[in-house]
Amino acid sequence: MSAPSATVVTDLPPWRRFKYPQSLIHFGALLGVLVFLAYSVEYLNIPLERLLTMFGKIGIQLSDRYFPPDIEYIQNRDYFGSVLDTVQMAYLGALFGLVLSLFLGWFGAHNVTPSRRLVYPVARLITMICRAVHEMIWAIIFVTILGFGMLPGVLALMLFCTGFAGKLFAEEVEAIDMGPVEAMRATGANGLQAFVYGVFPQVRVAFTGIAIYTWDVAFRAATVVGFFGAGGMGWYLKRNVLQIESERVAAILLSIILLVFVSEVASAWARQRVAKMQ
After folding, report:
1. Is the separation of the CB atoms in 87 and 219 below 8 Å?
2. How far apart are CA 239 and CA 256, in angstroms?
3. What b/e readout covers 2-20, taking b as 16+ CB neighbours within 10 angstroms?
4. CATH of region 74-277
């Protein structure tokens, strides 16, 4: 007995990416974006013709005012001490911020928070406030309250890292498998025990990656937070900018770029090691 032959369908409609009214909505949205872009350029009075000559002017300014960089200025012991201060400030700010983000991630995750009516909205509000205010604004506020020095910089970076890492950690916690957590709760485990043994093992690798990325961002912010009186390399940058020492400013900027590059390489290596843990 022969096998039944397969039915071949030949009258298929032509494939189209969008069908009406999806196509109309798609092109209407694209047209709206273009119209809003044109309106914004016209309303803000942005001279687009200057873009053609911008790069040439930048090259002239760099060659006339910032070249050659005063490399000897950044080789003295005092400036090297400010570099170490910046690294320590970023480290402490990121460390304290990550510790606080553990609690905010726990309290601000809707699936494991101790109280969805009280603790959850308060934790989310704190995270939002820390993230909404720029780290430079935090530095200005703490310098005004505490005076000049490293402490305002550490506190500013701590709040910045708290809001930054707290939101990411809470979102990771909300995506976990609740099976182990519910099993621990059924055996009589309290909230802290369920979090330590049921939640954190599932997000340990993700939190490590968040910690590395937070340190990387905090280090970039720490290089200039001293511009507002929080110490470190930023203080040297501010002093030389105000004194119009352009060649020294160029040298400081080169040192910041070098340090950020080193931090980027170290962060990439650490992220690769964390990826192998998964």
Report:
1. yes
2. 16
3. eeeeeeeeeeeeeeeeeee
4. 1.10.3720.10
Residue 238: strand, helix, or coil: helix
Q: What is the pTM of this model?
A: 0.73
Q: What is the pLDDT along the chain (278 residues), one digit of tens a residue?
A: 455 555 555 566 665 555 655 667 778 888 889 999 888 888 888 777 777 777 777 777 777 777 777 788 788 888 888 888 888 888 898 899 999 988 888 888 888 888 888 888 898 999 899 888 888 888 888 888 888 888 888 898 999 899 888 888 888 888 888 888 888 888 888 878 888 888 888 888 888 888 888 888 888 888 878 888 777 788 888 888 888 788 888 888 888 888 888 877 887 787 777 667 65
Domain residue extents for the chain: 17-53, 74-277
